Amino acid sequence: MDGEAGFRSGRPETGRLGRPETGRWRALPSPPAAALWAGASLLLVVTACAAAPRPDSASVSVASVADLVLPFDAYKPTPEQRVLLANAQAKLVARCMRRHGVSAAPPMVAVAAVKAGDPGNARRYGVADPAQAALTGYHLSRSDSHGRPPQWAANLSKTARTHLYGDTADSGCISRAAAVLNRGAEPADWPWLAVQDAETLEKAATDPAVVQAATRWRACMVKGGYAYPTAEAAIADARWNLDQPTVTAEEKRTATADTRCKWESGLVAAWFAADSALQRKIVVGNPDRFAALRANLGSRLARASKVFQETR
Q: Cα dist. 73→76, 115, 293 in Å?
């Protein structure tokens, strides 16, 4: 789909502390051909926002998950931008399929489905949103409107799927659509950013301030009657079947306690501070790489917008 294939995906297997591994290491994009087809009301996203810097995390006090804005975030597409790219690709795929005599079009879903599949930094340090923990425990929130491209494709005939995915002799409509969006864009190393994103999280976990906060988190949990050695162990409790939609009352209580202790112990703030410092250092040390990422995204967003200005 788009160029950030090293990043994102459709989620929700959970990795360290419940951070979705498919989704954002992911991140940023992508499930095959986009689990991100989205609502038409979001198609007019201003492409210039790709270049608009977001607040420097060093200057933001951390009081809630809304404050968890990292340096790398200024270079990744927002959910709304991913929606624009996904919809543009969906439209290009539909046109290509029509040229092959196939009238079926990729499904579209609301932007809420994109956000539900990728909570962003709200789960980067484990479950950290008290309100969400009370509702869904350790589960990711889900949207009933998810339109899954694989399910859509499964209903196509074998010949139609060949047109969609291509074969050894010819590229398919998905590849052609992606090529259109990438045409003329400056090359950018999205997989490299995905690796750096994962590594800063892991390295930050070993920071002395984070280790001390984790010890305070454990003591807080024990005081509340939960004897988990680590936050990772809490979300990995076999009693929570994260592959099934059912969320038990006990899971919600545990996740709520976990979240409360993360904030009271300073674990979220300490981890975020260490993570931010590492990312800022990488941004400063790699200006050309990050300039290329921004230029690549801006170019693809501009081309995606043009797709919707065309009459056919």
A: 5, 15, 12
Q: What is the largest CA-CA distance in the chain?
A: 65
Q: Does residue 94 contact residue 112 with C-beta atoms inside 8 Å?
A: no
Cα 95–Cα 33–Cα 124 angle in degrees, nearest 5: 145
- Three-state DSSP at 27 gives strand
Rounded CA separation 7/31 (Å): 10
What would the mean pLDDT of 62-73 be, rounded to a whole number?
94
Q: How many CB atoms lie within 10 A of CB 311?
A: 3
In DSSP notation, 82-137 reads HHHHHHHHHHHHHHHHHHTT-------B-HHHHHHH--GGGGBTBS--HHHHHHHT
If one counts every other C-beta atom within 10 angstroms of the C-beta of residue 49, the result is: 14
CA 39 to chain CA centroid, nearest Å: 18
pLDDT over threshold 80, residue 186? yes
